[in-house]
Amino acid sequence: MNDDPHGGWPGQDPDPARRPQRPAGPPRRPAGGPPPGYGQRQGPGPQGPGQAPWQRQGAPQQGQPPPPPPRRPQRPPVAPQHEPDLITHHEHNGTTDRGYDDRYEEPYEDEQYAPETDENGKPILTPAQRKKRRWRRIRRVLLALFCLFVVIPAIAFVITYFSVDVPSPQAIAATQGQAVTYYYADNTEMGKDVPKGGNRQILTPEQIPDIVKKAVIATEDASFETNSGFDIGGILRAVYNQVTAGKGGGSTISQQYIKVASGDDESSLTRKWTELAKSFKMNQTYEKKDIISAYLNIIYFGRGAYGIESAAQAFFAKPAGELNASEAALLAGLIQQPGRSENPKVANERWTVALNRMVENKFLSAADRANLQFPTPVPQTDKQQAGVVNPFIRDKVKEELAANGITDDVYYTRGYKVYTTIDPKAQAAAEQAIADGMKGQTDENLLNALVAVDPKTGGVKAYYGGPTLVKGPNGQDQKGRDWANTPQNPGSSMKPFDLTAYMQLGKGGINSTFDGSNNRQFGKQTIRNAGPGSSCSAQCTVSEAMQRSANTVFYDMVVNVTKPGPVAQAAKDAGVKPAPDGTSELFGDNNIALGGGKTAVTPEDMAAAYATFAGEGQRRDKHFIVKVTNSQDEAAYSAPEEAKSAFADDSDKSKQIAGNVTEALKGVIPFSKLKCPNGHECAGKTGTQQHTYRSGEPNSAKDSNSQTWMVGYTPSISAAVWVGGDGDKALKGKNGKAIFGSTIAGPIWQKFLSLYLNGKSGERFDKVKIIGGDDNNTIPSTQTPPDENDDPGETGTPSTGPSTAPSSSRNEEDPPSSSKNPPSSSENNGEEGGNGPGRGGGGRGDNG
C-alpha cells in the first residue's frame, strides 16, 4: 500500500486532483528509477567494475556486517495540501511516514486538472459542497440561538431565583395606608388625606370566605390553581393585545402580588424578569390558599381601602367574613378599576363580569347567578374637618395624579407630599364671596360653584364646588356633589366662542354687522331676543350684540356663516374638554350658538377657557399640581409648563383674535351693572338657561330660569361662577323673583375679584388691531345699560333636541305676556337675559 497521501496505487499515476503543482527545481527522475545519485559512491575513488549500480564504495566484504546506511537529510515541513489522512495512513495505523519528499512530487502535467477559482482567487465549490457549508452555518446559528434564549436565560433565572425574596403581607401592609399631605401654593399645609383602611386587619386563610376567594380567582386569574406563578398563555395573550391595541394583561395573581409588594409598575424587562422569578419562587414556597389570602390582604379596592377586610367595611359596613356572593363579585370586579368605584355604570359592569366568570369557572351555578341582585354600597361619607384636605380638591388632584402615573392603588403607599396651585387667599375669597352672595336666598334648590384659574400658568387658584357633606334621602350624612365639575347649559356665556370661530374662519370681526332685530325667522325656527334691552338695529355690530346679548345676531352668525362645528372647535381650542378627556359636552347642532340643547360645560372648563382669552390667546392646560415628592423628598411628578397658540398657528394671530374677544366683552361689564376691581381692566359674559314650564307648575314658573352664569377675567385671573339647580328646576331669588346671570352669579364674581385683587397692582389688557367690519380699528362705545324697567337682554336657544323640545311648533309660539311686560325689580336690571324662544312652550332659553 502506498503510504504517500499524494501518490496513487503502484503502477498508477497519482490523483491529479489532489497533487499540488511542483515548484520549479531539478529535473525529475525517470519513472520507476531511484533518485539521482542513489547507490553512487560517496566521496573520492572510482567505482569498480562489476559493481551493481547501487553498490557503494567501501561496501563490506562477505562475512562482514554491512555499514549503516547514510542518514537521509531532513526534509523541511510542508503544509498539508490534501484531505485528512485515511485510517490507513501513518499515525492512524501505527506506521510512520515513508519519507517521500514533496520536492519530488510531479507537477500537474495539464492545467485542466488544477482546481477552479473565482475572480477573488477562492475555490469554486460544487453544489454538494455549498449545501454542506450552508447546513454547517445553520447548525451553528441554531446552537447560538439555543444558548442565547434557553441556556443563558435558564442560568440567569436560577441565579435570580436564589437572590430574591418574597415579602410577607405584614411587611407590605406597613408601607400602605400612608397619609398624603397637601400644601397650598405658598407651601403652607392645606391638610392631610388619611386613608380609611390605614388600621386594617391581616386575615388568615380561614377567615376569608371561599366565595370571596373564588370570585377573585375567576375574575383575576382563572388558572391560579394550576399555574406556577406565571401563565405562558396569558403572557402571549398580553403581548398580542399590546400589538393589536386590545385589552387584557397576562399577570397572574402571584405576579400582581409581587407588583404591589415591590411598588414598581415600570414597563421594563428587568422588572418583569424579577417579577416572574419572585412569582415562581412564591409558588414553590407557599400553598395556594396562602397565596390568595396574601393577595386579598394587600390589594386595593377603592374608597381608600387596602385589603379585603377594609374593603368590606368601606363598601358594605360589615366584616369580610359576612360577605355574600353578590358582594364578593362586586369587590372582585373593582380590583381592576378601583379609581372608578363610585361610578355606578362601571361598578355594575365589573360586577356583571365577575359573576359571569364565576359561572364559567363553575364556582357559581347559572341558577344562583340569575337570582343575584346588584349590591348597592353604603353611602360614602367624607367629612371635611380641621386638618383634612377639601375632598373636592383632593379628588381633582387624584385625577391628575392618575393621569400622570401615580394611580389610585399606589396613592397611599409613598407618603406623598402634594404641592398644589391653590392660593390660600384666592380660596378664602371664593368661599367668602359665595357666602356673601347667597345671604338672604330662601330657595333650597339654589346651588353654586366658583373656579378661578391663573391665565399665565393654567394653575387653579380657587376651587369651590359646593358643600362637601349633605343630607341623604333618609337624613343620613353623605358626600356632596362637586358642582364645579358638573356640566350645565352655559347659555350666553357660550357666545364668545361663536365670535372666536367667526374670526378664525376669516369671516369678519367685532365691527361686522348683523340684523339684531327681534323675532327673526330661521327656517321653521323663530329666534327672539329677551326684550327691548337685548335687541338692536338691522345693522347691529357684533360688539354691540355681545353687550346686549342679542340672540338673533349670534344665531344668525352660527347657522348661516360659521356653522356649529367650528364653534365647538373654538371652545376646545380655548380649553373646554368634552368627553372622554373631560366631562363637558359640546353638541354640534344649532343650539350651541346660544349655549342650549345638549351643550353643557363645567364651571372649571369655563374658567379655563376664558383664561385663554385673558392669556392673549395662549392656552395653558388647567392643572391643580405644581409638584409631588415622596416621603424622602424625592421628586415624583412635576407639572409641565408650556403654552400653545390656541386660535391660530401663528401666536400673533391668536393674540389678535383673543384681544378682539376681550374688546367685545369689556363692554358687557358696565352694561350688566357690574364693576371691575379698582385699578384693573376686566371683561366677561353672563349667561342664563330658561326653565321649561311643565303642566301643573305655578304660573310663576313660566318666567323662571334654571341655570345662571357669570364668567370673566382680568389679565391675571379668570373666574367662572355658576348658580343654578340640580336639573331643570324653576329657580327663584329674593322675594320670589326670577334670577339671572347678573343677579346672583354676577355679584359673587365681582366680590371674588375685589377680595382677591385687593392690594395688587392695577393691570390693563394689551391693545390689538381690530378684526373685521370697516377695518377702522375703532371699538363701539359701551352701550347705555337698560332702564330698570327693561327686561334684561338675553335669551336662549330654541331646542331641536328631544330632551328639551317636544315639537318644533311649540317653539314658534308668540312670546307670553311676561316677555312684553318685564319685571320691574332691580334684581333684573342690566341682566343680559330674559325670555327664550317659545317661552312657555318647548323652546329652551338662554337668558344670560
From TrEMBL:
<keyword id="KW-0378">Hydrolase</keyword>
<feature type="compositionally biased region" description="Low complexity">
    <location>
        <begin position="38"/>
        <end position="62"/>
    </location>
</feature>
<feature type="compositionally biased region" description="Gly residues">
    <location>
        <begin position="831"/>
        <end position="848"/>
    </location>
</feature>
<feature type="domain" description="Glycosyl transferase family 51">
    <location>
        <begin position="196"/>
        <end position="358"/>
    </location>
</feature>
<keyword id="KW-0472">Membrane</keyword>
<keyword id="KW-0328">Glycosyltransferase</keyword>
<feature type="region of interest" description="Disordered">
    <location>
        <begin position="771"/>
        <end position="848"/>
    </location>
</feature>
<dbReference type="InterPro" id="IPR050396">
    <property type="entry name" value="Glycosyltr_51/Transpeptidase"/>
</dbReference>
<feature type="region of interest" description="Disordered">
    <location>
        <begin position="684"/>
        <end position="707"/>
    </location>
</feature>
<feature type="compositionally biased region" description="Pro residues">
    <location>
        <begin position="63"/>
        <end position="79"/>
    </location>
</feature>
<feature type="region of interest" description="Disordered">
    <location>
        <begin position="469"/>
        <end position="497"/>
    </location>
</feature>
<protein>
    <submittedName>
        <fullName>Transglycosylase domain-containing protein</fullName>
        <ecNumber>2.4.-.-</ecNumber>
    </submittedName>
</protein>
<dbReference type="InterPro" id="IPR001460">
    <property type="entry name" value="PCN-bd_Tpept"/>
</dbReference>
<keyword id="KW-0808">Transferase</keyword>
<feature type="region of interest" description="Disordered">
    <location>
        <begin position="1"/>
        <end position="103"/>
    </location>
</feature>
<dbReference type="InterPro" id="IPR036950">
    <property type="entry name" value="PBP_transglycosylase"/>
</dbReference>
<keyword id="KW-0812">Transmembrane</keyword>
<feature type="transmembrane region" description="Helical">
    <location>
        <begin position="141"/>
        <end position="162"/>
    </location>
</feature>
<keyword id="KW-0511">Multifunctional enzyme</keyword>
<feature type="compositionally biased region" description="Basic and acidic residues">
    <location>
        <begin position="82"/>
        <end position="103"/>
    </location>
</feature>
<feature type="compositionally biased region" description="Low complexity">
    <location>
        <begin position="816"/>
        <end position="828"/>
    </location>
</feature>
<dbReference type="InterPro" id="IPR001264">
    <property type="entry name" value="Glyco_trans_51"/>
</dbReference>
<dbReference type="Pfam" id="PF00905">
    <property type="entry name" value="Transpeptidase"/>
</dbReference>
<keyword id="KW-1133">Transmembrane helix</keyword>
<dbReference type="InterPro" id="IPR023346">
    <property type="entry name" value="Lysozyme-like_dom_sf"/>
</dbReference>
<dbReference type="GO" id="GO:0016757">
    <property type="term" value="F:glycosyltransferase activity"/>
</dbReference>
<dbReference type="Pfam" id="PF00912">
    <property type="entry name" value="Transgly"/>
</dbReference>
<dbReference type="InterPro" id="IPR012338">
    <property type="entry name" value="Beta-lactam/transpept-like"/>
</dbReference>
<keyword id="KW-0645">Protease</keyword>
<feature type="compositionally biased region" description="Polar residues">
    <location>
        <begin position="775"/>
        <end position="786"/>
    </location>
</feature>
<feature type="domain" description="Penicillin-binding protein transpeptidase">
    <location>
        <begin position="450"/>
        <end position="724"/>
    </location>
</feature>
<keyword id="KW-0121">Carboxypeptidase</keyword>
<feature type="compositionally biased region" description="Pro residues">
    <location>
        <begin position="23"/>
        <end position="37"/>
    </location>
</feature>
<feature type="compositionally biased region" description="Polar residues">
    <location>
        <begin position="686"/>
        <end position="707"/>
    </location>
</feature>
<feature type="compositionally biased region" description="Low complexity">
    <location>
        <begin position="794"/>
        <end position="809"/>
    </location>
</feature>
